[in-house]
Specification:
CATH architecture: 2-Layer Sandwich
Distance between the termini: 36 Å
Largest sheet: 8 strands, mixed
Order of helices and strands: EEHEEEEEHEEEEH
Strand content: 25-35%
Number of helices: 3
Low-confidence stretches: 1-11
Oligomer: single chain
């Protein structure tokens, strides 16, 4: 995977890396290797990337939430949550963090991840919310961002996926995140003109701001 530095406007709190279009299995293994080999002195990282079309099933995911596969690979992964879809045009921010060093519990970490996406959408005057009963970010009744995490030895990996400009059809092949009939949307359909590169940089900025903040809204 190729590592490219983002805009110099991103504060140097974390190592932020853009990786383009990456195979899911390869990226997942890289996250596990990074987490296994890191120490308390290792700098936290944010990986920004996209995946080729793939369904991922959380560790407690129920197979019946896959309604039709249409030939798209289904990978059983080790994050929390149920089934979701990844594809080109969706920006994914994988967070490789020392949550003890950041003094964040899991629930607060999830809330701050959601708030980062909400902040990006607020930049475009789009109102979004998080839901405690169904983690993720929603515009009205439609989900625009999903998240899942794995915690190991106070280190986390996996992260959050924001729909930008993608083919949303495969979401109709599943019960997204385990919810039957859940609507999904994307930034393009909300009138936001910027693509994955600009929105990825904005998301990285907002993630750093909210993860390092001493308070939470």
């Amino acid at each position: 995977m190729q590592n490219l530095s983002l805009s110099a406007s991103i504060p140097p709190h974390f190592a932020v890396k853009t990786m383009g279009l990456c195979d899911y299995q390869t990226t997942w293994q890289a996250m596990k290797d990074f987490t296994h080999n890191r120490s308390e002195q290792t700098r936290d990282e944010i990986w920004l990337l996209q995946h080729p079309p793939v369904f991922t099933q959380g560790i407690a995911g129920k197979p019946e939430h896959l309604l039709y596969d249409h030939g798209i690979a289904v990978i059983k992964t080790d994050r929390g949550g149920q089934i979701t879809f990844h594809g080109p045009g969706q920006i994914i921010a994988y967070l490789l963090l020392d949550i003890r060093r950041l003094k964040l519990g899991v629930r607060e970490l999830v809330r701050r991840m959601e708030n980062a996406v909400i902040g990006v959408l607020q930049d475009y005057h789009v109102k979004a919310i998080g839901r405690t009963e169904a983690p993720g970010v929603y515009v009205g009744k439609a989900k625009i961002a999903s998240l899942g995490l794995k915690i190991r030895r106070n280190f986390c990996y996996h992260g959050i996926a924001l729909n930008v400009d993608m083919d949303l059809t495969p979401f109709s092949y599943i019960n997204p995140c385990g919810y039957q009939g859940l609507q999904v949307t994307q930034t393009k359909d909300l009138g936001i003109p910027d693509g994955v590169e600009i929105l990825g940089a904005k998301l990285a900025n907002h993630l750093q701001e909210t993860l390092l903040s001493r308070t939470i809204n």
